[in-house]
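Supplementary notes for students who missed Thursday's class. We covered one full example, reproduced here. Read the sequence, then the structure, then the short commentary at the end.
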Amino acid sequence: MKAIPVRQITTSCGHKHTGRFSIRNLQQVLDGKALVHDLHKHDFYFVLAVLEGKGKHEIDFIHYPIQNHTIFLLRPGQVHRLELTGDSTGFLMEFDLSFYRPKHTITERRWMKASGKNYCKLEVARFKKLHKLLATVAEEYALQQEGYSEAIRANLDLFFIEFIRQSHTPNSLPKPESGYIQERFDELTRLLEANIVNMKNVSQYAGLLNLSAYQLNAITKASVGKTVSELINEQIVLEAKRHLLVTPNQIKEIADLLGFEDPSYFIRFFKKHTGLSPDAFRKAFK
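Structure (token representation):
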């Protein structure tokens, strides 16, 4: 049974710090050559900021164009495929939660909101602000002067403040109740990603969030117009697609990996939600 390929953070020799972190100039990464990465996933956070460049970026089977002034943010476990022209400029940053994980309640909520946003196309002025922060982070990482890790984390706080501003309507403030709903929905999303193999019941997720099933359904309905059961099913299908397209595993093996005791039930479940059997889906999209 083959696992989905997992890439590790690329760091230069001599960089020692708490947690894993890396930031590189895209010109350094590409060296004038086009970059083509087939489907894989990471066990860390991945930030791609493109100042100028073209290409394609597929994240969990959603296709995004790579254009000037675009930023992509991937969470651990997400599957992606990346193509980037050799003349692209910007930054590629990678880190894990042991290096950057906000502890302050407000900062943590902001970070959770930011990490749920895979793609952002920015106005030139706003992108320049973010690019400047990344340039400062890159300089701190290269020089490694006293307190450089703390300086990097402080600049990451500022980076994610600016990043989430892109999703706000100018001159508007979210209502307190909508902020609460968004926070709980974001928590549910992360719980689904982390536990879907072993937990497939609404009551289990409601319990983790200290909510009733009714309350949790009200939150998901208000957020995306879907029930918790629908979101659970979508996450199962997403995990199945990841394994079908990224590994050569047999359908029975994938069913077992996803916690299905009966492969035939898994096949029926997948076809009900996609219109294709697992085998037909694999052949159609490979």
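Commentary. The first helix runs from residue 26 to 30. DSSP finds eleven helices and ten strands in the chain. If anything here is unclear, bring it to office hours.
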